[in-house]
Amino acid sequence: MPDKITKIVKLLNKNYNLTFYSREKPFRVLISVMLSQRTRDENTLIASKKLFSRFDTAKKILNADISEVKKLIKQSGFYNVKAKRIKEVSRILLDEYDGRVPHELDKLLKLPGVGRKTANCVLVYAFRKPAIPVDTHVHRISNRLGIVKTKTPEQTEHELMRKIPKKYWIKINELFVKHGQTICNPIKPKCDKCVIIKLCDFKKYQKIFKR
Q1: Looking at 104-143, which runs of residues are DSSP E strands?
Q2: Which structural domains are found in the chain, ordered by start?
Q3: With the C-alpha atoms ordered 139, 144, 150, 156, is the resulting torsion angle positive or negative?
Q4: Over the stretch 128-140, which tens digit does the pLDDT of each residue have?
Q5: CB contact at 8 A, 132 and 138
Q6: 3-class DSSP state for residue 198?
Q7: CA Rg, the chain, in Å?
């Protein structure tokens, strides 16, 4: 399995330019990932851009009228809940962390609306710390490749951490997300264009994914 994983990472790494949004401030990464929950990637980008054009710090969001915050992030869906959560997170960051985003998993998980995927995204993309954020792309592709046989993202994260060498952790999310967005689509994967097709066990799992 380590050899297979190494080959997958190397092939995908050649095919995609990794950007790592770590050029963004940790607060922006945290809020953007919170906005990404239960919505499409393009909606997250729109909502994040609108929000940060007006309020780009915890203090500004906390002091903002919640109705305006809702309006700015409406594109992300579930904006009533998300607006309340990002204001509450902003308050906690200011009260407990001097306005800074913590870089420890346990502290991130204590923030309202922050689960393991969000926390791990912050560790990877804001602080370049080894972690494996598991979203729908990572969960789907890991199973299709036969790296794991899991039913939930939490199970997938546990198995990937066990099977993937730590030196690759920081790359896995971005590589699999890009591959999932362009080639390994949920319904009609473009297997004829896939650079890792020879390493894929997708046919074995077609019944599971009902494809």
Answers
A1: none
A2: 2-18+133-209 (1.10.1670.10), 21-127 (1.10.340.30)
A3: negative
A4: 999 999 999 999 9
A5: yes
A6: helix
A7: 18
Separation between Cα atoms, residue 32 and residue 21, nearest integer Å: 11
Handedness of CA 182, 187, 190, 194 (dihedral sign): positive
- Which residue, chain included where needed, has tokens 């650079």? 195
Quick one: pLDDT at residue 51? 98
Cα–Cα distance measured from residue 32 to residue 22, given in angstroms and rounded to the nearest whole number: 12
Q: Is the pLDDT of residue 188 over 50?
A: yes
The pLDDT tens digits of the residues spanning 45-94 come to 999 999 999 999 999 999 999 999 999 999 999 999 999 999 999 999 99
**Model confidence, pTM:** 0.89
* pLDDT over threshold 80, residue 23: no
Give percent helix, percent strand, percent coil of the chain, each to the nearest 5. Answer: 70, 0, 30
The answer to whether the CB of 48 falls within 8 A of the CB of 28 is yes
Distance CA 206, CA 173 (A): 23
Neighbours of 3 (CB within 10 A): 8
Nearest Cα residue to 153 out of 114, 117, 202, 106: 117
